[in-house]
Each structure stands twice: as structure tokens, then as C-alpha cells.
Design brief:
This protein has 2 domains: 174 residues, Quinone Oxidoreductase, Chain A, domain 1; 124 residues, 3-Layer(aba) Sandwich (Rossmann fold), CATH 3.40.50. The two termini are 13 Å apart. Helix 2 packs across helix 3 and helix 2 packs across helix 9. Helix 7 links the parallel strand 13 and strand 14. By secondary structure, it is α/β, with parallel strands linked by helices. The radius of gyration is 20 Å and the shape is globular. The protein is 30% helix and 26% strand. The chain contains 10 helices and 16 strands. Keywords: NADP, Oxidoreductase. Its EC number is 1.6.5.5. This is Quinone oxidoreductase 1. GO terms for molecular function: mRNA 3'-UTR AU-rich region binding; NADPH binding; quinone reductase (NADPH) activity; zinc ion binding. Pfam families: ADH_N, ADH_zinc_N.
């Protein structure tokens, strides 16, 4: 019988349990997938802690790659034996095998390994919609990307550099600054000791930036607004430091008629056509060498609790993959 990480209550990493599970046969519209590699994302810690509630008892994780073992009635998008990957859908990727809605699966092309697909799906597609759809960055523009040495940051900054943008990245340490520079950042701000808005003004000659991509949340939100030029866009897509506290929307007016959005990957890949197009853009960028996926941390799936400790303790850089 296959095993999976399960949780019956929210809390710290200690609530994660490695247990046998009954997977069963796929029903209408479902596929059974045998995982070969499982991706890890910061949102997994939100689900575990209860910041973003999920049904309990249940599984955890939203990204993986593997092989289709069986499909249920009505499934035409994939067939047994196909190499596939996914990001999103019902939590449960921290498992050796699982059932999943088949429409969430995309084919992994030749030339891309399973562990790369597992590491890139959520972070790669997030990067894609952020820089190509939420705010389509153009060559010559200067942008600010927080957590530039994180999983999304390393991918997005490479892509931004290939587009021809000037990339300002924030990181928490000198070691992460070197990594960010090696992955496309033209300028790096050490957020633990530098004034972010002041440095952005200095770098841009007072002009500031048209867009800020912020996955940090509470600790950087107001500073991010101060980095924007009039009519600039604040893209808040994560809460690594905690949820942004309620604020008077008049701040947006006072700081230059700013725009604010809180996007999610689910909205940008809600249709099968959008999902396939987004994934294809990511895979094409990898195959072309625009994005180089570096899996810097590997763990066994049974060690998921330690993965979360390391992730929340800021001991990881870039992509993490667990092997069933």
C-alpha cells in the first residue's frame, strides 16, 4: 500500500505524519499517478499552519511529476504510461501515488527530467503569469523583485533578464545576494540592513519602478509602495513574513494613484487552454536555456517535516525536491 504525508490538525512541522493510504481506482475525470518527484513550495507551510485553510484530515502539497497508472471514464487528455506534471488542485502531492483530476495534468516534454518538472511547475508558471501577464515586463524597464534568491525569484529574475529588463532584487544575506546576482539581478538590496525605498530611488535616479513583485507580505508591503512611480503596480503574491494588515486604501492615492493586485496561479490557469499555454511557455524557456532550474535541496518524502523546518528557518535557497 502506498504511503503519504497526512495531517489531521494544523500546527508546526510536527503535525505531519507518514502513513499508508488507500488510493483506489480513478473515477470519472480522474487519473491515478505514481509520483517520481515532488516539489515543495512555501505555500505548503501556509496550508500546514492553517494560514490558508485546507480540508482536514487530508494531504499536503500541490506540485509533482510522475507517470499515469490508470485513468477513469471520460479522460482523454492523458493515458496510462504518460509522463506528466501538475501544480495546483486538491492538496495531496506529498504522496507516493494519488488520484487527481486529469484536466490538471500536463505532458512533460522530452528533454525535461521528472525532478526538473516537479521543481518548476508551480514556481515556473507563477513566474510566467507574473512577468508576462499580470504586468507584461518590456525590455528596458526596471523592476523590483523581492526574495530574489527564493524559488520563484531565481526563475523570474532569469526570465526578466532574458526579456531585457533591469532587475533589482531583495535578499536577506550576502550569500543570497551572490546567488541572486548569478541568476539575473543587476542590483541587489540586503533587506536586513538596507533601506529598500532609498536604495531603489538611488538605483533609478529618483524615478522608482513601474512594478514591484512582493511575496514577502507584511514586512515589505509599505516599503514596496514607496518604491513605485506614479501609476505603478504593486503585485502582492505571497505572505512569507505574515499577512498584510488592513490599511486605508487612500494610501494608494497619496503615493501616486497606485494599483494593487493579489493574483493567484489558479486564476491564470483556470481553463485548460490557459494551463497548457502557461506550462508550454515554461517548458520552452527551459529547453531554450532561458531558465536554468537548479535543484539545490533534495530530501526523501518521508522527511517532509524536516523540509518544512528548513524552509521556514530560511535555510534553503531555490528549488527543493522530495523523492518518494
Amino acid at each position: 500500500m502506498p504511503k503519504a504525508i497526512r495531517l489531521t490538525q494544523t500546527g508546526g512541522p510536527e503535525v505531519l505524519r507518514w502513513e499508508e493510504v488507500e488510493v483506489g481506482e480513478p473515477g470519472e475525470g480522474q487519473a491515478r499517478i505514481r509520483h517520481t518527484a515532488v516539489g515543495v513550495n512555501y505555500i505548503d507551510t501556509y496550508h500546514r499552519s492553517g494560514l490558508y485553510p485546507i480540508p482536514l484530515p487530508g494531504g499536503l502539497g500541490s506540485e509533482a511529476a510522475g507517470v499515469v497508472e490508470a485513468v477513469g471514464p471520460g479522460v482523454t487528455a492523458v493515458k496510462p504510461g504518460d509522463r506528466v506534471a501538475y501544480a495546483g488542485g486538491p492538496p495531496g502531492s506529498y504522496a507516493e501515488a494519488r488520484l487527481i483530476p486529469a484536466h490538471l495534468l500536463v505532458h512533460v516534454p522530452e528533454g525535461i527530467a521528472d525532478d526538473v518538472a516537479a521543481a518548476i511547475m508551480l514556481k515556473g508558471m507563477t513566474s510566467q503569469y507574473l512577468i508576462r501577464r499580470t504586468y507584461p515586463v518590456k525590455a528596458g524597464e526596471t523592476v523590483l523583485f523581492h526574495a530574489a534568491a527564493g524559488g520563484v525569484g531565481l526563475i523570474a529574475c532569469q526570465w526578466l533578464k532574458a526579456i531585457g529588463a533591469t532587475v533589482i532584487g531583495t535578499v536577506g544575506s550576502d550569500a543570497k545576494a551572490e546567488i541572486a546576482r548569478a541568476h539575473g539581478c543587476d542590483h541587489v538590496i540586503i533587506s536586513t540592513r538596507e533601506d529598500i525605498p532609498a536604495r531603489v530611488k538611488e538605483i533609478t535616479g529618483g524615478a522608482k519602478v513601474p512594478v514591484v513583485y512582493d511575496s514577502v507580505g507584511k514586512d515589505t508591503f509599505l516599503a514596496s509602495l514607496d518604491c513605485l512611480k506614479p501609476l505603478g503596480l504593486m503585485v502582492s503574491f505571497g505572505n512569507a513574513s505574515g499577512k498584510v494588515e488592513p490599511f486605508d486604501i487612500g494610501i494608494l492615492s497619496a503615493k501616486g494613484s497606485l494599483y494593487l493586485t493579489r493574483p493567484t496561479l489558479a486564476s491564470y490557469t483556470a481553463t485548460r487552454a490557459d494551463l497548457e499555454a502557461t506550462a508550454k511557455d515554461v517548458f520552452d524557456a527551459i529547453l531554450a536555456g532561458t531558465i536554468k532550474v537548479e535543484i539545490r535541496h533534495r530530501y526523501g518524502l518521508a522527511d517532509a517535516a524536516q523540509v518544512h523546518r528548513d524552509l521556514e528557518g530560511r535555510k534553503t535557497v531555490g528549488s527543493i525536491v522530495m523523492t518518494p
